[in-house]
Task: structure prediction
Amino acid sequence: MRRVLAALLVVVCAVGVVGYQATRPSSAPSSARVFVPAPGFFTDFSPSFRTSIADAYYLYMVQYYGEHVKGDQRLDSLAAMLDLITKLSPRFKRAYFFGSFALLDAREPGVSYDMLKRGFVANPDDWHFPAYLGFFVYTFALNKDKDRIAAEWYEKAAAIPGRLAYVPRLAARLHEKGGERDKAVIMWGQVYADGDEYSRQKAVDGLDRILPQEKEARMKALAPLADVMPKARLDALVEELFRVHGE
Result:
């Protein structure tokens, strides 16, 4: 009973803070470091109860971010809020997406990356997670093999139903940039097989850049596509490639 009352108090306080933040004068001072309960405090409660707490803290997090990003630009407690919300409600996608980009303003891209990875584990059917992970690696990573790592994330996103057409194209281009020619060939082949006219032209251009010039070597490099493309599509692709190549 004590734990229930304590938890209810936390929820009431969180909702109260949201209301206060929304109505208090913008000039009123506020602290960048606020109390955020540990997620373990709520683990004994039902999923629906934990979800309600997560919803309340999500509203609180949005208010907190909006106030501080326009004010002192200190977001000391943002990571703790996002950790609490997503551990209480692991499939709360909006919280992951909003929080991970908000953490960039907190200058914590590494925390954003880890949070998105955790979100992808909890939501493996949503292509946005690996796509955003690829974006984060490509944009913020400093390691030499970041093109390869970003390409692998985009490739994961490309394999999930519902992804947008740019995702496999980007995976192929990044494999190309990272020096992974064989993987780039496979991805460009898939782009051609599944894409519209614009995507097919991009695939032809991309393959023409990376394939050997000599006919026999070019056909050998294309051979693995027989396992991932319908024969009719592959035949059409080969015809276009050799027409582009002038043969």
Observations:
- Residues 7-19+37-123 form one domain.
- Residues 20-24 have pLDDT under 50 and may be disordered.
- Residues 193 and 232 are 9 Å apart (CA to CA).
- The chain is about 70% helix and 0% strand.
